[in-house]
Structure formats: structure tokens, C-alpha cells
Amino acid sequence: MEKLLNTDDKWRSRRKMLTPSFHFNMLEGFFEVFNKEMRIFIENLEKYSDGKEMIDIYPLIKHAALDIICGTAMGIELNAQGDPNQPYVKAVEQYNHLAFEYSLNPINWIAPIWYATGKAKKRREALETLLGFTQKIINERAEIFDELEKSGQKVEKKRMAFLDMLLNMKNENQLSNEDIREEVDTFMFEGHDTTSSGIGWTCWCFATHPEIQEKVYQEIYQHFGDSDRDIVIDDLKELKYLERCLKESMRLFPPVPAVLRKLKNDIDLGGKIVPAGATVVINQYVVHRNPMTYPNPDNFDPDNFLPEKAASRHPYDYIPFSAGPRNCIGQKFAFYEEKVAMIWILRKYKLTTNYKLHENLGGNESILRPKMGIPVKVERRN
Questions:
Q1: Which of 49, 90, 152, 260 has its CA 20 to 30 A from that of 6?
Q2: Using an 8 Å Cβ cutoff, are 62 and 196 in contact?
Q3: What are the structural domains, with CATH classification, of the chain?
Q4: Is 328 within any annotated ligand binding site?
Q5: Which domain of life is it from (predicted)?
Q6: Would you say 249 and 198 are in contact if contact means Cβ atoms under 8 Å apart?
Q7: What is the maximal distance between C-alpha atoms in the chain?
Q8: Which residues of 266-299 are buried (b: 16+ CB within 10 A; e: fewer)?
């Protein structure tokens, strides 16, 4: 978490160094992992595919997203989808919940009270699990990387995991061991929790809007037919309606519902001066539901992202990945992953639910998790 609060100079130099890691060609190399893990995901859904009983698919989505981030960021196979009691997932949930609870309730800021509740110990244990997991993987991957280097072999750049790129930068004296741990912790922590939220809420929007889901399915079917071949990056360009649906889902349910920013200069807000140095909260959840920008803002309407409508809005009217210099460096990665996931899910299954869209609310945490999970019926398509 400390990586998210880096000073300007440290952040700026690190961002400049890491941006090439998210180039189009590098992201294309991650599609092998996307497809492999989503095949496992749809196989796991098969046992629930009679369309009769409602199940919560959110934990399954989280495990798939964790396997994807481990494969792409760490270059390892974690198999969280085969082990539903994966401790890293539980530690992320617990740490996130306790950190948010601490920040919201000032009484928790009184150290004796915070420690007396036992929550300080639980948060420390969760953090130790998170840091221990990533450090273990970094050490193991560094050994493999060094052995390849000594033998004169190199990992094909297009197939490099994020960690491999960082280890390569270490060998060029650009990063220290601590720098690598910070980057991997951030990418692991943020990279699976946010995509889980994005995929989960999109499934929810489709389950509560069967007519829109069917329209997306028809678009997918027209492109892929009956094939269950792997999805490649060029496929994503053809599925414009699905893309609009994903954007609309993140409008209603932005995975990160709010961010904090420290002002560099005084700003005038409605005649009131907010001084430089003040910390302001930018609430994407509220920004995205501005009725002056989005008519019927609580409705799920993919037409909000028709090209002509999107062009008429201010760029900061839609900020699911934040905006400006400190926007999310992994936003293309996340969007590609979510799009691939929805193609795999919808070309195999139909999702329905007994609930309405806004009966499922987002929890009060740093990631917008659905309070009810994603309770849906899964029906196999013919």
C-alpha cells in the first residue's frame, strides 16, 4: 500500500521507467495466460450450468483473476482456481477491510483502542501474508532468471512476466530489491482485486438486463461462430457493443470508487478557496452519476458510450481508472482482461438472476465489492 503514496520524485521516475512494460506488444503476450485461466474458469462453472440454482460466482471470478495476475505479473502458476482456500485471497480481503475500517472511524486512530480490539494484530498478520507471498515468489523467480542469464538464454521479451521485466531492470542497476518488491506488491494487490470487481459487476449488469446480454452474445457469436478458439488481441477491436457495456458497467460500478489527491495549488470551488496542500477526495462513484452528464444516471445504458455521446463529454466525466498523470498504469491490461473474460463467459453461458440491478450494493471499502456477491443462475448455451 505504501507504493500508492510515493513522493512525486520517486513516483515520476518509476512511472517513466515502467510505462514501456504496458506497451501494446507486451500486453499481447499476456493473452496466453488470459485464455488459459478463463478456460479453467468456464470449466469450473460447468457444474452449476443447469440454470436452476442461484450461485455466487464472485469467489470464482476472484480466483481466476488471481491466477491471471500471478501468471502475468509473477510468471508462476498459483492454481487458486483449484484451491478455493488460497491464503493470499483471504489476506487481501482482510487487509483491505481493516485498512478501510481504520481510516473511516477516528476512534481507531487512538492506538490503545485499535490494539485492544485485536484488529491491529489481524491487519499485521494479513500484511505479513501478503508481503511474504510476493517475496517468496520474487526470490524463486530471480533464481530462475539468473540461471537463464548464466546459461546465455533469455526470456522472449513478448512473453516476459512483469516481474521478469523488473528483474531485468535490476540487472541494469535501475531498481533495487526493495523497489521490485514495492512494484510487485502494488501490481498483485491492485491488479486482481480491481479486475475481479470489474468482471463481477459486468456479469451482474448482464444478468439483470437479459436483453442487453443477448445483444452482446449475438455480437460475439457473429464474430466467433461456434468456435471456442483462444481470443487474440485483434478480436477485441471488433466487439464494439461489448466494449460499450464494459464501460457502462464501470460507470455505474467503478472498481475503485474514490481516490485521494493532494493539491499543489489553491483552487476555487464555487467561490471557496481550497488551499494548496489540502487532501481532496474525488469520488468516481458520484461523478459517474451526475444527471447533468448522464441522463437517467442510475440506469444501465451502454448507449452512454456511443462515440458521439462520449465525444461531447469532458474527459474527466468518466474516470474509472482515475485520470491525469497519476492514472492507473495498468488500465489497458485490466480492460483487456475483463473483455476476454466476458467473451469466454458469454459464449458458453447465459446469466440470469432473481434480483434487480440496484438490489446489490457496493461495500464501503477501497474496492467496490458487491455486498451480495454475484448471485446468478448459470445456463449452458446450446
A1: 90
A2: yes
A3: 2-256+288-380 (1.10.630.10)
A4: yes
A5: Eukaryota
A6: yes
A7: 66
A8: eeeeeeeeeeeeeeeeeebbebbeeeebbeebee
The residues that bridge with 259 in the sheet, in sequence order, are 282
Q: What is the pLDDT of residues 185-230, one digit of tens each?
A: 878 877 888 999 999 999 999 999 999 999 999 999 999 999 999 9
Residue 262 has pLDDT above 80, yes or no: yes
Does residue 157 surpass a pLDDT of 70? no
Q: What single string gives the DSSP state of each residue in 126-187? A: HHHHHHHHHHHHHHHHHHHHHHHHHTT----GGG--HHHHHHHHHHTTS--HHHHHHHHHHH
Cβ contacts of 34 within 8 Å, gap of 6 or more: 68, 72, 231, 336, 337, 340, 341
Helix segments in 208-315, DSSP class H: 210-224, 233-236, 240-252, 284-287, 307-311
Angle at the Cα of 332 from the Cα atoms of 37 and 84, rounded to 5 degrees: 30
CB of 91 closer than 8 Å to CB of 1 = no
pLDDT tens for each residue of 243-257:
999 999 999 999 999
Cβ burial 194-219 (10 Å sphere, 16+ → b, else e): bbbbbbbbbbbbbbbbeebbeebbeb
Q: How far is residue 350's CA from residue 360's CA, in Å, rounded to a whole number?
A: 19
C-alpha cell at 286: 458520484
Other beta carbons within 10 angstroms of residue 88's beta carbon come to 20
Helix, strand, or coil here: 260?
A: strand
Q: Are 146 and 136 in contact (CB under 8 A)?
A: no
Q: What is the DSSP string of 78-112?
A: --TTT-TT-HHHHHHHHHHHHHHHHHH-GGGGSHH
Name which of 346, 298, 269 is nearest 45 in CA terms. Answer: 346
**Residue 304 to residues 3, 201, 314, 368, 381, Cα–Cα distance (Å):** 34, 17, 13, 21, 29
Contact between residue 126 and residue 94 where contact means Cβ atoms under 8 Å apart:
yes
Q: How far is CA 77 from CA 66, 82, 114, 274, 356, in A?
A: 10, 11, 37, 48, 37
